[in-house]
Amino acid sequence: MTRICLIEDDPIMGESLSDRFLLEGFTLDWFKRGGQALEALRGHRYDAVISDVRLPDVSGEDVFSSATREVEHVPPFLFITAYASVDRAVDMLKRGAHDYVTKPFDISELVTKVRRAVGAPAATADATDGEVGPLGPSPCGHWRRRRRVSRRRRGPCSLPVKAAPARKSWPATCTRCPIPRAARRS
User: Fold this and answer.
1) Is 152 exposed, middle or buried (0-12, 13-18, 19+ CB in 10 A)?
2) How many angstroms separate the CA atoms of 162 and 139, rounded?
3) How many CB atoms are closer than 10 A to CB 158?
4) For 115, phi and psi rounded to 5 degrees?
5) What is the C-alpha separation between 44 and 180, in angstroms, rounded?
6) Helix (H) or strand (E) holding 87
7) What is the reported pLDDT for 16?
8) How confident is the model at residue 93 (pLDDT cuts 50, 70, 90)?
9) 14: confidence class by pLDDT, cuts 50, 70, 90
């Protein structure tokens, strides 16, 4: 199983990334300070590191520099930041960073970049329903997505339905069936 070191001081961003990567099937250790993460990098083997550039104690760049000097196996580093600078990004990529992503970003794209960095296969279709959702092939992810959608409304076939955007009156269609809900009642 792919193990990721996440270094992010913002609790909302950290929780979002942590939840998403866990749903995608990664093992993740989340650190809010660069010093703690550097100690973990010395003691554990990670497949990838996702680090914010600005941290409370040291910068993500300093963690990367220290890791390249002190850690035997340096995993690919992906940096995320809200304070983007082209010069900084180019400098970090020249020094060996794998990627540099500016906030706000699409978490799905970050997951794809991490998969590429560690050489993990891309998400494939789930054997149970044959479709690839926004969370990839994880049965847990599909279940959560279905549960979230199904809280809204359910059709007679017990699958989630969606109504026409500006109407409260139905007909609505099942998200899996092309048959309008009104037609299924008879």
Assistant:
1) exposed
2) 22
3) 9
4) -60, -45
5) 55
6) helix 86-94
7) 93
8) confident
9) very high
The pLDDT of residue 121: 64
Q: Is 122 helix (H, G, I), strand (E, B) or coil?
A: coil
- Rounded to an integer, the average pLDDT of 121-142 is 46
Residues 91 and 161 reside in one and the same domain: no
Q: Are 38 and 68 a contacting pair, CB within 8 Å? A: no
Q: Which domain covers residue 92, as residue numbers?
A: 3-118
What average pLDDT does this structure show over 105-124? Answer: 83
**Of residues 157 and 16, which shows the higher confidence score?**
16
The predicted model scores a pTM of: 0.63
What's the CATH code of the domain at 81? 3.40.50.2300
Number of domains into which the chain is organized: 2
- Tell me how far apart the alpha carbons of residues 28 and 70 are, in angstroms, rounded to a whole number: 22
What are 95's strand-pairing partners? none
* Closest-CA residue to 17 (of 1, 38, 37, 31): 31
Sequence-separated contacts (24+) of 136-145 with Cβ below 8 Å = 136/24, 136/25, 136/111, 138/23, 138/24, 138/25, 140/23, 141/23, 141/24, 144/23
